[in-house]
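Support reply, case 0932

Customer input (verbatim):
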Amino acid sequence: MGTHGAPRGRAARPAGEDSGGAAPAGRDGYFDLLRAVALVRVVAYHTFGWAWAGLVFPSMGVMFGLAGTLMARSLRRPALTVIRGRLRRLLPPFWFWGFFVVTAMLLHGWMPDWRIVYWIVPLGDPPGSAWAGQAWEIVWYLRTYLWFVLLSPALLRLFRRAPLPVLALSLVPVAVLTSVPPPEGRFGGALTDLATFLFCWLLGFAHHDGVLGRLRPLAVVLPSLAALALGGWYALTHQARYGGTYDLDDNPLGQAFWSAGFVTLLMYAKEYAGAVGPVRSRLVTVFNARAVTVYLWHELALILAVPLTDRFWEVPAFERYLPLESQWFLFGVGWVLIAGFVLACGWVEDVAARRKPALLPGGRAARMGT
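Our regenerated output:
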């Protein structure tokens, strides 16, 4: 997903949707669970760097698919109102997180240029120092998401003119950019990410409009399996081109086709099963209501987990009885710190959504990308 350095996971409830409590009314339990799994997979990938993680569960393809569904639903209202709502809910948590990241970089000798404007509205990759690269590289997702939001009114009109042909043709741009490399720099990276996940975003439109539900199983399953086969084949046979790895995050074409097949099957399973009630899990509720916070702060949590774990070696009992050398232990410490960030910073999502700030969501929940 994107082309931004060593492992990174590319890692949505619309502005007008509300929910409450552990079992919010009007929530889709299937989508809530998928979003929670996607976030856990992103954190696991950033901890362990598993090349196969994207093949098991292409998190950002799933996230863009869910966001596309919710964007189509929201566009029943005036487009400018919807876009303002998305910006209002997403930017304050980004600014709050960015204040700490930018301040830390400035204190370590970094000096920005005019591109610091991308720390205000991330329509391009914001500048940053290599020292903090692990923290700020995740902004690629917000940048791609915002461009999809801005383009959605036009994309939805185009999609509704010829849903299936437009959906199929949406994989052409990434194939073209694979054959004809995009320009270097920020523009090329942004174009590649948009092309990579365009199908998944439009697939969200297809789910919302009932296009998938009107298709027979074979008309969905066979093309999906073909896309999976093509994406997997390309990733495995072109490793030399992408640094000797089959990691989909480094391979836009493999990512696009694998995500297309995988997310189509997930979306069609939802159509086939029918309505799914809210998942009665407080943990899933928290993940969905604090998804922006989890995504933005998880890399900082993993960064801080390393020196914190190092300090444990200074305590004889910890050194003797805790698996301090294990990546799984680091993974656990990272989640403890993520929980701390959710408690300390999650209220910003409430303020952005014009709700009463809460330590943990117990009222109306907001999702990532809303």
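We compared this against your earlier run and they match. Two observations from our side: The chain has 16 helices and no strands. Confidence is low (pLDDT under 50) at residues 1-25, 363-370. Please reopen the case if you see a mismatch on your end.
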